[in-house]
Amino acid sequence: MKEVHHSFKIGIAVFILMWSILPLKIEAQAVTINSGWQFALGEKSTDSWETVNLPHTWNKEDAFDDEKGYYRGVGWYKKQIFFSKEKDGLIHYLHFKGVNQETDVYVNGHHVGNHKGGYTAFNFNISEWINYDVYNLIEVKVDNSHNANIPPLDADFTFYGGIYRDVQLISKPKQHISLSDFASYGFYVDYYTVSEEKAGVQVKILIDNFENKSVKRLLKVAVLDAENKELFNKKLNFKSNPEASEAVNIKFSEIYNPKLWSPESPYLYKLHIQLLNQRGEILDERWQNIACRWASVDPDKGFFLNGKPIKLIGVNRHQDYEGYGNAVPIELQKEDIRLIKEMGANILRNAHYPQSRELYDLCDELGILVWTEIPIVNKVTNTPAFFEVCHTMQKEHIKQYYNYPSVVMFGYMNEIYLRLAFDNKSTVAEKENQKKTALDLAKQLEQLTRELAPNHITVMAGHLNELYNETGISDLPMLFGWNLYFGWYDKDIPDLGIFLDEQHQRYPNRSLLLSEYGPGADARIFTPNPKKFDFSAEYQAKLHQSYYQQIMDRPYMAGMTAWNFADFGSEFRGDAIPHVNQKGLLQYDRIPKEIYYWYKSVLNQNKPVIHIATNYLDNLSLFNKKEYPVQIYSNQNTAEIFLNDEKIQDVSFKNGVAFLNVPFQNGLNKIKVISNKISEEKTIHVLKTDALDFESFSRFGINIGSHFYFKDNTRQVVFIPDQSYKTGAFGYINGAAFNLSKDKYQGIPYSIKNTDLDPLFQTMLESCTHYKLDIPKGQYMVTLFFVEPQIKPQENIFNLNASDESLEKSKEQRIFSIYLNDICIAERFNMAEQYPEKYGIEKSSVINIRSDEGLNVSLKPIKGKPVISGVLVEKLN
Ligand code: GCB
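Above: the input record for the complex with GCB. Below: its predicted structure, written as tokens.
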């Protein structure tokens, strides 16, 4: 079809003819075809087809198992669809909302199209291949192999393959609102003026005519308010040229004193477009939220909405979900957006790719500003093909997401120099080439974005590296986001402000946002002495609370978006839960971590909030300790604290939090917090003891070589932190905590196979030959936990610094014999030899303690230094 794209200016003389009679509607035009697909992994010649429903991915299991890697290759889907004779004469499209990552579609054996890129929608016109009154075979080949010409090439998230969003069959009369402009909705809404006094809406509508003759048509376009009251309408008669795609521009007069859209008051107007034929039948129609708002950034004063400064505080979001991979039912995903709103966030960065369009609709409705971007992450390929895919992807992205009032920022790159910064193989010339390639692509995409979306803010995010300044890439977008992990991958928490001030001073014309920050946290880990890289709930709280204050103190910062809303899949990671990046404010299954409630209490000023942050503390063991520090989150000023109905303290809240040491009692503890408007009560079980007497408890676990508590949810045991031996207690006689890198992380940041107790194994004591527990006479089951820390360190750019020498030492053997008192339970124990990888090894033995000798664990070295990760003692008799 030829593209005409000239525009009709409608004159004042809008003539109303016979079309004003009540319109009839052409039958349902878009049908979701998610159910009953046949699926085969690998080539389609196979006999093993299974029936699946969409959304679907083939990686929801293998991206989380103990085997390294996940299937990246081809998968086939097929389905038979019946087209009745009445459908002849319509134009049929297959609409794919998201397929990762390269798709080829065949209808009755004919190749109808190819699409590259896993996160934008696409349409194929399949009309010419359809047969009527019979079944038609639709076959879809999907490939998620690494492809040097399709971004993302490399990133910290799992590239699940499959048709993971809905598929629709759309059948339209021969004249319809275009579905061929990069799978946009076929119209683009703009505001020729927008202020508190007045807002003027205009819309460009693309009409496709598939007939080989010119036809007369009527467009009816209306602007309605939130109560569906029509404010304006325009009717335009026009003639569609044969086989042409044409643009119609419609401009409405101004809305005076418009209700402005903002996160506090997300007032939405609506646009209604109808295309009618001469008989008054509706050929096509669209509804769209529209809103009166304008946004800008200022290098000194931050972000402005509707002319007023607002601090952007929110989250990044990945689309995957525990148990589903990326094939997540849309209703579950919408829940995320509601949780983001409920937390009090006013911005969402959809990192690192465009997400389901339904979610942007919800952001419009709820009042969440959106930064949306395409997945050009970590590195680029210097080929024309890669550049072309990037251009097309950004065109699809902008055109598909252009109309959402919530979308104020369009981005196109994340940490594009990450790989380069860690590259110690390329020559100087090759590195210069890589710098230039990324810069060239960024310039092109910046220009493209400004052309296609002149009223949006362009954005990009970079990591902590001078390369962004040196190349000038950070000065291209209107707003530059720093992804900063001070207190995690880099230096310390207070270094954030120092770095930002220095940047602001050096680059006074650059607008800045903190686009990522946050530590990993696991609800099974807690400690009164939180440390970098320990994954404790307390460290997460400490970092977020400080970062928030540092950003609030700096008016030039446009805002901050936490990394990440929820934990997400990243196959190669060795966090406390392997294959999952655990920097979420919520767990992968969307159970909120305590920090979510803290944000709620600082951001949500409308409703009173009180939250006792003890969810992770249940089953706390206190050995020889009087109290444990607890945080209470609230947006109130003060509160009274009661423990088991006795008042213990008055507290006042600063930065949304009050800290108090709770003198827990052995057994059940009821904490109650009352402020004048609101109260909360929590009950937690505590095992409190000053002796290993096994009187009020029958099991005792120690997280050897570590400063944190670790909760084993299966056994319902909390392993307590380690200590040096004290008479009447427990501890190591000798040895020191093992760390692969001194200041970077605790223990070994790797997935431990064959166990879910990764954090217990990941931290350990080295060179300990004697470990002692003063337990009374009796019979016990003693379980010791071991892992060999130095087998096959995997390359993991997000956890490791390439220059770490310790990583080069592979297969360092250690051989030792293990004794419980004088009984040898393992002779010449050699993990490197017995297990090819990092296996979590548990050794259980029954032992009778007959005197006051207690339990002595001896690790007698034969070669190298012995290691041990934990001990669990269970009283039998
Ligand atoms: C980043 C990346 C993000 C990672 C994150 C992390 O800076 O932009 O994709 O997931 O760091 O957790 O390391």
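Notes for the reader.
The pocket of GCB is lined by residues 155-156, 414-415, 463, 483, 516, 563, 581, 583, 798 (CB under 6 Å).
Residues 2-23, 794-810 have pLDDT under 50 and may be disordered.
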